[in-house]
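Final report, results section. Input specification for complex C-07:
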Amino acid sequence: MKISVQKYDPSVDEAPYVKEFEVEYRQNMTLLEALVAINDEQEPIVFDYSCRGRTCGRCAMALNGQPCLACVTLVSENGANEVTALPGFPIVRDLIVDKSMMNDRIANIMARQRAFPLTLDEINAPVDPVIYNKMDPLEHCARCGVCVSACPTVQLMGQKEYIGPAGMLAIGLRYYDPYDQGDRVVEAVQNGLWNCIQCSTCDEVCKALEIDHQVIWKDLRAAAEARGLVKKA
Amino acid sequence: MRGEFGDSSAQNGISRRAFLEGGAIAASMAALAGAGLVSLSGCSQEQEQQGTPEAPAVDAASAPSYEVYNADICIIGGGLAGMAAAIKAVDEGKSVIIVEKSNHGFGGAMGYNWDQFINFVRDDLPWQESTDFVLNELTNQKIEKGSYEHWMGEDRNLMVRYENMGYGLLDRNRETGEIAPLLDFPTIYGIYRGFSRHQADYITSLGIRILDQTLASDVIVQDGVCGGVMGVHVPTGTFRVVRAKATICCTGASAWLFGWDTVAPRSINSPDNTGDIDAACFRHGVPLEGSEFIQCDLINIEPKGISCSFQGGIGADSGCCEYICDKDGNYFFQGMDYATLNKMDFTRIIAKNIAEGHGTENGGVYVDFSTPEAFAKIGETYIRNIQLWKEVFGIDVEGMKLECGLEAYERSGNPITDGELMVEGIAGLFHTRGGGFSGAQGGSSVNVAPRNGSYAVANAVKYIEGLTLPALDEAVVTAEFTRLFSLFGNSGGKRPQQVRRMIQKACYQALQPMRMTDQIDAGIAELERIRKEEMPNMTLGDTSLVYNTDWKCAIENINLLDLAEAAAKAAKFREETRGHMYRVDFPEKDDANWLCNVRNFYNDGAITCEKADVVTV
Ligand SMILES: Cc1cc2nc3c(=O)[nH]c(=O)nc-3n(C[C@H](O)[C@H](O)[C@H](O)COP(=O)(O)OP(=O)(O)OC[C@H]3O[C@@H](n4cnc5c(N)ncnc54)[C@H](O)[C@@H]3O)c2cc1C
Ligand code: SF4
Ligand code: SF4
Ligand code: FES
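Structure output:
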């Protein structure tokens, strides 16, 4: 099987370049398996991973231009396998990118805003099941950045104008969260809610299969609209 | 020559200093550069601050630099134990720095964003009655009692603790929205849907100083006192020194040495957890205890790429017993009273079956999901992976016989400590983790890790009262710097990745739950061979200082090899069957001779074993 891998060491290379490898194919071979095989048996390529099951988010990169998680993406025995670093993020080395800005923003959003600590009674009280069923799947977001990389709005405007689907999802999680007391609707609008073109690309690339991004976007838009937080034409 | 600059006392009282160090380090770097192997490419922070232009390659005359940070308490490893430790230190008004190998929040077992089962002992249940031990009879009772009594009453309610760190909604009935614990007894409570990454968010919101992507490689020990930790910032290759009055090691269980398939050992644990500080303590002369014990789950071994991935995989527990069969279609649990089987018995019975020659091609068993009743027993955490398997691999688990193997989710083998978790012989160094702690084991769970982390810091706070940090002995720093950077100097040997696979495979031979003496001997012999023949000239395939994973792998290998050999020898030494493992030649539990712990000693590279009494109160 042929596979080409992007390499780049900013301390010596002027620009990223591509190197071809031949790897012995096996049935159900994941991209991660192919990379480990090259790194173990041929020459160093620098990449990161941990969980081997789409929960740590550390193996995000792109195969044939498509952002993906290497651990749950198959390579093709006879087709093209062109591996590059996760597009849209600064490259640290080979397939490692710097996602710290995205991660920091998500962490800041995720920190729950509340005036007083929760009591056991408050925790034990029933919650609206509709809210629960909307919020709960969002917990599975691995913060991998695959959706952010694939999002056309982020590609067009950058993460400053539109935080991207992972960050907006975090806002959505706290918006649904009955224990959170922050103004998440303003936060959503501030972070570019209205810039999303609702194209569903994020849903197509995300491997947390229980997440439906479009539902979150709709709910946040409805809430923003109800408060008149709409973009002036 | 010692140039000192860049002292920037941060608002929270943590001062950061950076200084250039000449002398011995320059000499050692000159030697390396002379060998033409180091290209000191990334320019360090100090140089940036001074506006020095980036140097393309190290030149023998330029002095290498390292960074120095100061805190009251340094925490090594920002996983579940480490985060609880950091929170406790902040609560106590201490300045704290976390040194974390991975990106903050993404490291170790904790850094997987998975649906955790959170269980805790209620209120004031006496410590002896707790149920979260793995091998009660070998537990260090002083530690357990101390740690248990550290959190009494409401402190024990992890639901309240975690919810106030921003966890989402714990498990609810999907129709009524009512809280839905799995265990709700007067003594114990347990509930699904804990996502610990919220704890990392909480830590971020506290403004705790985190040095992440930093591999801690050794503790600073001067005259038997620990003065902090040293290591490498992986993205830049910068050497870092963190000085602290107390240091808390929370680096998780080194299960990464347990075999190898295509992307991971037979373990759900993380590649970050390579036992670096356990091994460092060992080399500083601290005995290890409980190295022979592992804790196992049963998880798929095909498809290989997600083999033993708890996160993407599918497995079975004792709830599935009756549907487990061997390669000959023998449902060997049937007829047993499996309703009362605990995890240890469950694992050991499977290990026995495999050891007796009934294992599958890949050394496992089958979980037979071919009936709807069996499929309905699939564990809560695996349900979400059914769809993933269909989508990614085109495999429908429903109706199939799934090949599963015993993987090590945690392992024991930690430097011995006193009852307050201070490492024996190294004052000011505390050691704890979630799994495999306190004597042979300790619980392995999201409830034990934070309690022990918090307990360690509570003790550390007492210890540092009135303490001033002695001056840093630069010879200690130089020695560690040289040890790490000299790895660039080898040539003609195998790459670290190749050596790593050898260590992992040999270790598995000896440490697998199916313990066969000839296999153990073969494993030990191979590990000794690796030490003699492979390690001295292990050769990096990469000479850059920017995110050099060959270098990282080589540093970790030194640690993994020490721990693997200790584990293999302890496995041989314990001539009985106990816990998760089944020893073929000694198939019975032997309390008369083995109601004790096994300690490993390290003397000039020679690793030996001795029995040690169980610590009781
Ligand atoms: C996949 C999996 C699922 C589990 N499921 C459950 C469950 O549902 N319920 C339950 O109760 N328990 C569960 N457990 C057990 C529980 O998660 C662990 O016992 C707990 O996470 C251990 O915490 P820890 O702090 O000791 O280790 P970790 O959480 O692994 O943290 C160790 C940290 O140290 C860092 N580190 C390691 N080496 C270095 C170094 N040299 N320098 C700097 N940093 C370093 C790592 O990057 C990591 O961040 C599970 C374990 C695993 C692996
Ligand atoms: S929403 Fe999905 S793709 Fe996006 S960061 Fe989360 S897990 Fe990754
Ligand atoms: S739906 Fe919105 S967030 Fe998702 S990819 Fe399209 S533009 Fe981006
Ligand atoms: S390795 Fe964790 S998401 Fe791929």
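Chain A touches chain B through 75 residues (CB under 8 Å). Residues 2-97 of chain A form a domain with the Ubiquitin-like (UB roll) fold (CATH 3.10.20.30). This concludes the modelling results for the funded period.
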